[in-house]
Amino acid sequence: MSEFQGGGKPSGGSSKSKRKSATGTSQESLTHKGDSRQSCASVATLRAAVYGAAVGDALGVPYEFRGRESFTCVTMDEGGTHEMPRGTFSDDTSLLLATCDSIRATGRIDVDDMQKRFRQWLYKGKYTSDGRVFDVGNTVATALDRGRGCTGEYSNGNGSLMRIAPLAFTKATDEEIESVSAITHAHSISKSACVAFVHILREVAFSRSDLLSAIENNVPADEAFEAMRNLKDMPREEVSSGGYVVDTLCAALWCALHTESYADCVLEAVNLGRDTDTTACVAGALAGVMYGYDAIPKEWIEALRGKKVIESCLFD
Q1: What is the distance between the alpha carbons of residues 314 and 169, in angstroms, rounded to a whole number?
Q2: CA dist list (Å): 254 to 47, 269, 280, 291
Q3: Which residue among 49, 83, 154, 292 has the highest number of C-beta atoms inside a 10 angstrom radius?
Q4: pLDDT one-digit tens code per residue, 34-79
Q5: Is the Cβ–Cβ distance between 243 and 2 less than 8 Å?
Q6: How many of the other CB atoms lie within 10 Å of CB of 182?
Q7: Helices in the chain by DSSP H: which ranges?
Q8: Whole-angstrom Cα distance, residue 8 to residue 290?
């Protein structure tokens, strides 16, 4: 995960919520049990999203920070930027798994429990494939160290977006999605990006919406997200793939819109360059939902490290 180092100052604005409910650190059970959308199929879609994110992340790890057109990723590689073994996922997937594990263990959205698990990852190496923590973003480290999310406009990196996908498979309200983002990223732009992505995932997974309609239905009111309205016609050279949360969200959505398979989507995300692991992690979660677990190349699943950790964190 690359940390956002603001180029132009992102605009503020309040995060718009579509559904009103009381928020707190601990809520009633929020999984889809008993909901009309809950089925074996939706459990399978969660698994596809999580594995889709992890595989995309692992594909991108060797190339992080490299410029576009300076490399070509065609399969799962080793070494590279972080000198990690083939199939190693980064902090992106580790924090996504910690989010999943909290929901599995508590049966609800409990931000105090999530924060505890995030700290276990940072300080003890939990939710990693081999106990090693690497590629930690400054905002994430600062927020977990001081126990509250960062609110500054230049703290709008992608460190909450990369872990938010599991909430699409719960009944979490917009306020609760925002509270999960705010564990580390508490500015309105980061929170709005997380709400938008969860809604897009839900529409694609459960409402049978096509992706373009799901995107158009969930563009936040903040002008910072205006680029989301133009993704269908945006040329590749205009797609930004750095660590700013809006860039990551738009790049991941662009990749999914302009490809027709899981593999093509995540490879396109990696080959955009710069924040390769996080862009491919977010795009991979979406592509997993769109195409299903079986669409992820078997050789990539086999190469993926930490599968026992992943399986232990899934909830139903």
Answers
A1: 11
A2: 23, 9, 11, 16
A3: 49
A4: 343 345 668 999 999 999 999 999 999 999 999 999 999 999 999 9
A5: yes
A6: 21
A7: 40-60, 91-106, 111-124, 138-146, 174-181, 188-206, 211-216, 245-257, 262-271, 276-291, 298-303, 307-313
A8: 33
Q: How far apart are CA 45 and CA 74, in angstroms?
A: 25
CA 31 to chain centre: 19
Is the domain defined by 40-313 classed in CATH 1.10.10.10? no
Which two tokens mark 64?
A: 């992080």
Both tokens of residue 35? 């909901």
Burial of residue 251, with CB atoms counted within 10 A of its CB: 0-12 exposed, 13-18 middle, 19 or more buried: buried
Q: What is the per-residue pLDDT across 151-165, written as a single tens digit (0 to 9) for each?
A: 999 999 999 999 999
Tokens of 136: 């930690």
Q: Report the b/e string of 76-108 with b at 16+ CB within 10 A.
A: bbeebbbebebbbbbbbbbbbbbbbbbbbebbb
Calculate the alpha carbon distances from 45 to 35, 39, 263 in Å.
Answer: 15, 10, 17
| Sequence-ordered list of residues with C-beta below 8 angstroms from that of 140, at least 6 positions apart, any chain | 1, 91, 95, 118, 122, 157, 159, 184
Does pTM top 0.85 for this prediction? Answer: yes
Task: Spell out the domain ranges in the chain.
Answer: 40-313
Cα–Cα distance for residue pair 76/69, rounded to 1 Å: 18
